[in-house]
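Researcher: Before we compare anything, I want clean individual predictions. No alignment, no superposition, just each chain on its own. First chain goes here; please echo the sequence and then give the structure tokens.
Model: Echoing the first chain and its structure:
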Amino acid sequence: MSVFLAISVLALLIVVHELGHFVAARAQGIYVTRFSIGFGPVLWKYQGPQTEYALRAFPLGGYVAFPDDELDEEIEPNDPNLLKNRPLLDRAIVISAGVIANLVFAYFLLMTQIAWVGIPELQPAPGVLIIQVAPETSSVAAQAGMKAGDVVLSIDGKSLDQPSSATQIFQDEIKAHPNRPLTFEIRRKEQLLTLSLTPKAGEDGVARIGVRLAPNGTESHRQAKSLGELLGSAAQRFEQIVVLTVQGFGQLLSNFKDAANQMSGPVAIVAIGADIARTDLSRLLQFAALISVNLAIINILPLPALDGGQLALLLAEAVRGKPLPTEVQNGFMQTGLFLLLGLGMFLIVRDTANLDWVQKLLSQ
């Protein structure tokens, strides 16, 4: 059931993205021939007056198709309602609408979660909470045995008992000891442990151990006192997610070798979502908001086959005063599609191989 919920969340975010393109086109009177969720064999379809709606076997993507490149006798090549015949602004709205829909939906999910469980309030406690540990291949913390949920109480005898400064001291100690061993005192549930690890200096010279941190403490919730407080709290959390996501992509560009190992494909996303659904259904909304923001930012990157790539082609057209040659546009988009499919297959295979049940099967 939890896996089904996680897959449903991913499929819903894809529907929202494609629905953004669809609504933006139809609202402007632009022809749309197909609205498809998923890839592969058709499970269900309905032919409307103008658009075919389809649900396909693999809900890991989707698309909105326009009749521009597959004209029939009923549509003239110079018909103003073809997407390619519309002004640049109209086309830019359609192309960017999927990204906008994902961002708006992420905010809505966060607002729903806060209305459901309340505004979180942290009662500070000594130490720093480890909320995520990267895989062993890219994390010295994982290799040393550190786990999500651990609370680091001290580093090399330096206490982290002041909640206001504990996280900063933790980060400073790691950065100050590249390739030099450190001893961590950790509380894991009711146990006190001592771990030794050596921060690894990346290509940029900055030492890392491969963890994500959060202030330690006990979280409680209270209901919002007004609609304004509810909207403001959702906006604050939305801003935090966007900033952290952008920073993550920045690290991917500046330190690709180390950051690439932390990339997750659809299999890993579903696995994480299933774990969350099993423990706290309300957190699944926040997880969905995080994935929705990631989808938006990924799609706005100026890469072939993504919305950002199409916007880049529109920008080139605006600068030149005319579109790039068709063969150039097709080559640009097809190359990107090939690379994205290759990356997707690699992530699916790698993440599947890293699943616990697969590892147990292979170890037998």
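Researcher: Okay. Second chain, same rules.
Model: Second chain and its structure:
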Amino acid sequence: MYRARIEVSLKSGHSDPEGEMTAQSLKELKFSAKNVSVSKVYTVFFEAESREKAEEAVEEMCRRLLANPTKDNYRFEIEEAK
């Protein structure tokens, strides 16, 4: 059993309305937020034959569903789940 922590964020140059709104709200609350970006984090528990197969599976999850390659970057960490 493996656990993957997958973070999906917007590539540079893409509009992030949620981040912009959050930055504005923080400024209104008197915080000196210059820039805010929003990311999604997925935690996925799954079975795989090996760590290598687990990494291949997570890459495929990201490419096929979790991230849009046109506008998103992603990174992940995998560890054996107990």
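Researcher: What stands out in the second chain?
Model: The radius of gyration is 16 Å. Additionally, Residues 51-66 form the longest helix (16 residues).
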